[in-house]
Amino acid sequence: MPLQNRVDPFGAVHAVAARGMLTGNRGVIHDPATRTLLKRRWTTKAWIICDCAYGERRRDVMGRNAQSGSAGWTELFFLDEVTALAAGHRPCFFCRREKAKEFADCFGKAFGIARPKVAEMDARLHAERLAAGGSAGTLGDAELGMLPDGAMVASADTAWAIAGGLAQRWSFAEYGRARSVAGIGKLPVKLITPPSTVAVLLAGYQPVWHASARIKQAKAY
């Protein structure tokens, strides 16, 4: 039985078999005795994206990983960084320091801040995260056409990743075949990725894509 620790682009947490290529957390949100989620979905505004492997560190997923023997942070998993960014997470300054610095630099460029602080970025993102009560803005044709690579949108309950002016349908296991943005489905189309993260992408941040993202302009890792 899969654990409930897989995050979709809307920020909801599911129990599915597919694991994904990145992990991360929102604080302690599980009961280690039952390996199930608590009612709360975050205990901190620092929602981060981490590498699944870091040095010799090993964790008992959704177990007792704190030095005190208590839960420790709850491991969440994402298809790729594009998915994690859409859910409102940002790169970790500990295990993904270079990507975190790149994100912060682009955040500063986007908002005219010389040295943005982590708390400042987290507060802004938290107000926009769908899973934390933020709202998804409706996009017109012109706005859709201006979205940067790595932004995600939704048509009905389906999420799509944008790259090179095309869209790919998201799933927990992979991306589907690319199609034109005009062909993604019923209107209205809504923005999933937090607007602040979209600004970071526009400023030049390059997110890590799942290998199934077969779009010429998208970097697959």
Protein described:
- The chain is of the alpha+beta class.
- The protein has a domain at 99-202.
- The chain is built from 5 helices and 14 strands.
- The protein has helices spanning 81-86, 97-111, 118-128, 141-145, 195-202, and strands spanning 4-7, 13-15, 22-25, 30-31, 36-37, 48-51, 76-78, 90-91, 138-139, 152-155, 158-163, 166-170, 175-180, 189-191.
- The strands form 4 sheets. A 6-stranded antiparallel β-sheet has the order 9-14-10-11-12-13. Strands 7-3-6-8 form a 4-stranded mixed β-sheet.
- Strand 10 and strand 11 (158-163) form a beta hairpin.
- Helix 2 crosses helix 5 (195-202).
- The longest helix is centred in the middle third of the chain and has 15 residues, at 97-111.
- The two termini are 29 Å apart.
- The relative contact order is 0.17.
- Residues 217-221 have low confidence and may be disordered.
